[in-house]
Amino acid sequence: MLVDSVGRAVTDIRISVTKRCNFGCIYCHDEGLGPVAKPRTPHGEEMTPTEVERLVRVARGFDIDSVKFTGGEPLVRADLEEIVARTVRHIDDVSLTTNGSMLSSRAESLRNAGLKRVNVSIDSLDPIAFREIRKGALAPVLQGIEAALRVGLKPVKLNMVVFRPTLPHIPELIRFASRTDGLRVQLIQFMPELVGPKDWSVDIDGVKRWLESRADRVLVREMHHRRIYLFNGTEVEVVDPVANPDFCMHCHRIRVTHKGELKGCLNRNDDLIPTRGLDDANLENAFHAVVDQRIPYYGGYLRDYPPRSPATAPLIHLLPDDIALTD
C-alpha cells in the first residue's frame, strides 16, 4: 500500500480519459480540447485503453481498489466501454462522472462492460437555468439518469456545484432525489482557486447548517470527513474542500491526467509525473514518487488562507421554515 508522509493511505484513483467536452459550464476550470458533438476516437493526447489498463494494473499492485473515470466528458470517448472492460480485469470497483447528456444510449453497454455506478452533474432541474449554467440541454441528462437507474448503475449520484446561480435550486434537487429509489445528491463547493476570482461563492458552512437543521440524521464519511445528511432515507453529501484542512487530511486519492501524468492533488499542477513510455518498474517508481511528494493542500502546501468557522456561520435559509423539503 502507498502511504504519504502524513500517513494517508492511497486507496483510490481518478483517471481523466479526455479534456474534451460537449458542454460549456460557466464554472469549468479547463477549456479542454474543443467542443465535441458526439463520441469519437481518442485524441492524440489521450491515453489509449491499453495505457489505461497498464496504469490500473500497477495501481492494483499497490492495493488501490477503486477507480473513477472523469474528463472533460468521458462519454466523448467512443472506446470508453473498452477502457472499463480492461479496468475491471484488475479493479472491480469502477465508477464514472459524466454530464449525462450521452448516457442514455450507452448506460447498458457500460454496465455490461463492468461499470458499477455513475455520478451525473446536474446543477438545476429548471431547463432555462440549466442551459444558462451548463450551456447544454437538460432533457438528455434526465434521460441518462433514467437509463442508468434502469440498468442498475446504482446509486446514481447527482452532482451539483454550490455557487450563487445554483443555490435556489438545491431544495428541488433534494426533492427529486427523494422521490426515486437509487438517487443520491452530492453538493460540491465551488472552487474559486480553479477558475480565478469570481463573485460566485456562497458560505458552504451556512448551507451545511441549513441541511443539518432539516435533516433526519447526519453522518460523517471517512473519505475527506464529508458530512452526509439524510432526508427520508435520501443521502445528501457535501464536498467542501476550500480552506478545509480536515478535508485534505482525510484524502486518500491520487489522479491521472488524460496524458497519463500522475497527479497527487486536484489543486496542483506542479506535481505532475509523466508515465507514458515507462516500463513497469519505472511506472511503479512514478507511483512512489507522486505519493512521496504528496502533502495536504490546505495546511501543508498552502498555509495562508482564510479560516472557516462552521459553528458561527450564518444559517442560509433556502426555504421558509413551514415548507417541507421532501414530499
Features:
single chain; 327 residues; alpha/beta; 11-stranded mixed β-sheet; 10 helices
Structure, described:
There is one protein chain. The chain is α/β, with parallel strands linked by helices. The chain is built from 10 helices and 11 strands. The protein has helices spanning 49-61, 80-87, 107-113, 127-134, 139-151, 170-178, 192-195, 204-214, 245-249, 280-292; strands at residues 12-16, 66-70, 93-98, 117-121, 156-162, 183-189, 217-220, 227-231, 234-239, 253-256, 262-263. An 11-stranded mixed beta sheet has the order 7-8-9-6-5-4-3-2-1-10-11, covered by helices on one side. β1, α1 (49-61) and β2 (66-70) form a beta-alpha-beta unit. α1 (49-61) packs parallel to α2 and α1 crosses α10 (280-292). It is globular and about 65 Å long. It starts with 11 loop residues before the first strand and ends in a 35-residue tail after the last helix. The mean pLDDT is 91.
Please write out the topology:
Layout: E1 12-16, H1 49-61, E2 66-70, H2 80-87, E3 93-98, H3 107-113, E4 117-121, H4 127-134, H5 139-151, E5 156-162, H6 170-178, E6 183-189, H7 192-195, H8 204-214, E7 217-220, E8 227-231, E9 234-239, H9 245-249, E10 253-256, E11 262-263, H10 280-292
Parallel strand pairs: 1-2, 1-10, 2-3, 3-4, 4-5, 5-6, 6-9
Antiparallel strand pairs: 7-8, 8-9, 10-11
Helix pairs in contact: 1-2, 1-10
